[in-house]
Write a structure and sequence with these properties.
Helix content is 47%, strand content 14%. It is an alpha/beta fold. The chain has a six-stranded parallel sheet, with helices on both faces. The chain has a four-stranded antiparallel sheet with strand order 5-4-6-8, with no helix packed on it. A three-stranded antiparallel sheet has the order 9-11-10. The two termini are 51 Å apart. Bound molecules: 5'-O-[(L-methionyl)-sulphamoyl]adenosine.
Length: 515
């Protein structure tokens, strides 16, 4: 089942506010992985969207004096505008208020309700609720100050008659699942967290609310509204065509990787597979829970003015640098801190002085010595270790990308950039070119350098699609960049002598230091 389509997802975000760079971090990562898999010739299905139900949204709407539907209708475009500017190539965008999603939530609820194991039952719940998380906590979970461990805000005591999902019954099945497929939760540190959580025993969780009405009604008891997390997780099924399109669902499900940050690990690594098992469906193949982005070491929030909107950075650095910076600077999987200074530093070192300088040097020398036309590599052996370096880096890149080790994949690419810039310094084609007798040597050095650029274009495309497209144009290689296929196209020697290059605009112009 689901072998045909590479199905990847972001979390669906709460549109109670506009996105910040933390939300964009996940979405950019997924876009990079999606573009890579497309470049490998795979059929990719990339789903994102907005999580529009629940108490948090209802309260945000009330605070603005709006009804929840008009509120989310007005907020949701603020998310899409960011994805558009970031070049996010999602294949489908789900809003949980859509009728197609209601169908799926109802079908899923009913299927679990009817599964003959009494997995959904009516009970009374008393607990401490954090509206920002839309989750209950026990006294033990709370911070030293007695607040929500994620938001450090007061929790509310709630008592309700709710329907429950019998999560406790899934403890052993879940443990067996993680044991058989240790790759289902990544990185490994997160798997260990999940294992200790599940081994410690699981409590049933309530899947309905009667205290408010912004959500779908339970099909068998319409006084109850479906709990926002049950509703939200089901979006992954809606996107794949569950219930509406069985043929597409069979090709697409299970999801290959759900990407989230570590904040919603428990929902994705414990609740979600148990819910799917209860519905007789296969759990997703992998959850990748990356780290948390901070600003100068602080958690992002509106109150301390650290909730940076992506446009604030895009206006200065541009989209390619934006995408590259976050993916390269913060080891994917670990926590990391954003600062303007580190972004400016990376821009200069890796992009302007690194890849940009390499491209402009090579294209300028080709223009000057060969009228822009790629020459035959007439003198043998002058390419030195470049083909071997590239081959090894491409292999490392592919291995890392296959495992969504994004930062390591980019590091492999920039090893090529550094090696080639050094190669040029060693060979000094600009000095050799002064003597017409060295024409063959210069031709070979420039051929090798241009061939590296061609391969770099392919490898940088998932992270920096705009810059890669521009470099591809400047190189004059025939055909569309997106129609190239990795690994074949990344093999040494693909650049045809006679190709007409042009020295265009700098890929990464120097920036003013100010903001
Ligand atoms: N609506 C739920 C998710 C339901 S998925 C079925 C939700 N929404 S959220 O708007 O709060 O988004 C949380 C997600 O946004 C995180 O898991 C992560 O992907 C991203 N991030 C939000 N802040 C982040 C950081 N500071 N750092 C990294 N990622 C962050 O939870």
């Amino acid at each position: 089942m689901g072998e045909e389509v590479f199905y990847i997802t972001t979390p669906i975000y709460y549109p109670n506010d506009v996105p910040h760079i933390g939300h964009a971090y996940t979405t950019v990562a997924v876009d990079l992985v999606a573009r890579y898999h497309r470049l490998c010739g795979e059929e990719v299905f990339f789903l994102t969207g907005t999580d529009e139900h629940g108490q948090k949204l209802q309260r945000a709407a009330e605070a603005e004096g709006k009804d929840p539907q008009s509120f989310v209708d007005a907020m949701e475009p603020r998310w899409r505008e960011v994805w558009e500017r970031l070049g996010i190539t999602y294949d489908d965008y789900i809003r949980t208020t859509q009728p197609r999603h209601e169908e799926v939530v109802r079908a899923l609820l009913q299927r679990v309700y009817d599964n003959g194991q009494n997995d959904i039952y009516l009970g009374t719940f008393e607990g401490l609720y954090c509206v920002a998380c839309e989750a209950y906590y026990t006294e033990d979970d709370l911070s030293a100050a007695g607040n929500c461990p994620i938001h450090d805000r007061p929790v509310e005591a709630m008592a309700q008659q709710n329907y429950f999902f019998r999560l406790s019954a899934y403890r052993d099945r879940l443990l067996e699942h993680y044991e058989k497929h240790p790759e289902v939760v990544r990185p490994e540190t997160r798997l260990n967290e999940v294992l200790s959580l599940v081994r410690g025993g699981l409590q049933d969780f309530s899947i309905s609310r009667t205290s408010f009405d912004w959500g779908f009604r339970l099909p068998w008891d319409p006084k109850h509204v479906c709990y926002v997390w049950f509703d939200a997780l089901a979006n992954y099924l809606t996107g794949a065509g569950y219930s509406a399109d069985p043929e597409r669902f069979a090709r697409t499900w299970p999801a290959d990787i759900h990407f989230t940050a570590k904040d919603i690990l428990r929902f994705h690594a414990v609740y979600w597979p148990a819910m799917l098992m209860a519905a007789g469906l296969e759990p997703a193949r992998c959850l990748f829970a990356h780290g948390f982005l901070t600003v100068g070491g602080d958690k992002m929030s509106k109150t301390n003015a650290t909730g940076i909107h992506p446009f604030q950075l895009l206006d200065h650095f541009g989209v390619d640098a934006y995408r590259y910076y976050f993916m390269r600077e913060i080891q994917f999987g670990a926590d990391g801190s954003f600062s303007w200074e580190s972004m400016a530093r990376r821009y200069k070192a890796d992009l302007s002085d690194g890849l940009g300088n390499l491209a402009s040097r090579v294209l300028a020398m080709l223009a000057k010595s060969f009228g822009g036309v790629v020459p035959e590599p007439a003198a043998a052996g002058l390419e030195g270790d470049l083909p071997g370096t590239v081959e090894a880096a491409v292999a490392r890149y592919q291995e890392c990308m296959a495992g969504a080790e994004i930062t390591d994949a980019l590091t492999a690419v920039w090893d090529i950039v550094a090696r080639t810039n050094k190669y040029l310094v060693e060979k000094e084609p600009w000095a050799l070119a002064k003597d017409p007798g060295n024409r063959d040597e210069v031709a070979s050095i420039l051929y090798a350098s241009a061939e590296v650029l061609r391969i770099l274009t392919l490898l940088t495309y998932p992270a920096m699609p705009g810059a890669a497209e521009r470099l591809w144009e400047q190189l004059g290689v025939p055909g569309c960049l997106t129609e190239q296929r990795i690994p074949e196209a990344a093999c040494w020697g693909g650049l045809a002598p006679g190709t007409a290059t042009t020295k265009g605009e700098a890929l990464f112009p120097r920036l003013d230091e100010g903001r």
